[in-house]
Amino acid sequence: MDDYLIRAITTNKEIRALAVKSTNVVREAQERHQTTPVATAALGRVITGALLTGSLVKSGDEIVLKIEGTGPAGKIVADANQEGEVRGYIENPNLDLYQTDTGKLDVAKAVGAGELSLTKIMRMKEPYTGSVPLVSGEIGEDLTYYFTASEQVPSAVGLGVLVDTDLSVKAAGGFIIQLLPDASEETIQMLEDNLAKVSSVSKLIEAGMTPEELLEELLGDMDYRIMARKDVKFKCRCSRERSYELIAGLGREDIEETLAEEGEIEVRCHFCNNTYTFNKEEVEELLAELEAKEKGIPEVDTDQIVVEND
Ligand SMILES: [Zn+2]
């Protein structure tokens, strides 16, 4: 089954609900970054949270979800857009195994105390960042607190990642439930009762629940209408061209020095761990270009020369 996200609203217009299955996305992140189990769980939760939050912004906008804790995990970052595309990384992918007394992966211990920030990058507007202190380091609870404290939207967020014994990702997914301004006391009570029954998201995901079934579990008898359904995937924006521009930005001296030391230049993307290697000839060509630019010699791109016949 492919990964996808649904956004729904109850027919009484009192609750907005989102749910996502992100197993393949988190699996790809684990493979790309070669994360150990607790790092997989931490990064997977941030990626799943970013997918859900990213689906709440306007088309063309994007969000960056950042967890900066004092624990050994270091910085965890994921960005996502409304198209269901996400990418992310964790500063320390090789975390030792942290387990709670009950044998669960101890994400809170790996993350530590610190801050959660959410940046909205909007077209035609200045980016906006809201941040809150981490309440538990479990990510889901921290995002719940962010929505409630920073955006004043009472919310419940559940994020779960299940890691298999062979370190691969068995299941991942999550939900966001938000109270709309007209929510009645009755609705709030019913929701609280349902949420209390859902002890672990990853267990539901492991049981093979679809996002629709997840919402049914959370919303109980409340009818809802699905407003949007989107496939979600791990997608990075890096490219060989951008990496080339990045090297060019280093300046001639640094480039020459690295080339002399390494014999080539390698650029690694934080987000997806792809590497782009430029050999001696390619770097020398770049150096010649930079030199020409410095001397003010206009660049001639032979591909752009058009020979007209008439
Ligand atoms: Zn990349």
The whole-number mean of residue pLDDT values reads 91
Shape: elongated
Compute the number of strand runs. 13
Unique bound compounds: zinc ion
CATH superfamily of the largest domain: Hsp33 domain
Helical content band: 25-40%
Distance between the termini: 58 Å
Q: What spatial order of strands do you see in the largest sheet? A: 7-6-3-4-5-11
* Number of discrete domains: 2
N-to-C series of helices and strands: EEHHEEEHEEHEEHHHEEHHEEH
**SS element count, helices:** 10
Poorly predicted runs of 5 or more residues: none
Q: What is the level-2 CATH architecture name of the largest domain?
A: 3-Layer(bab) Sandwich
State the CATH class of the largest domain.
Alpha Beta
Strand content: 25-35%
Q: Largest sheet, described in full? A: 6 strands, mixed
Structural class: alpha+beta
Gyration radius, rounded? 23 Å
Describe, in plain words, how this protein is organized in 3D.
The chain contains 10 helices and 13 strands. It is an alpha+beta fold and 310 residues long. Strands 7-6-3-4-5-11 form a 6-stranded mixed sheet, covered by helices on one side. A 5-stranded antiparallel sheet has the order 8-9-2-1-10, sandwiched between helices. Strands 12-13 form a two-stranded antiparallel ribbon. A hairpin with a 3-residue loop joins β4 and β5. The protein is elongated and about 75 Å long. The chain starts with a strand and ends in a 16-residue tail after the last helix. The structure holds zinc ion. Zinc ion binds next to loops. Zinc ion (ZN) binds next to loops.
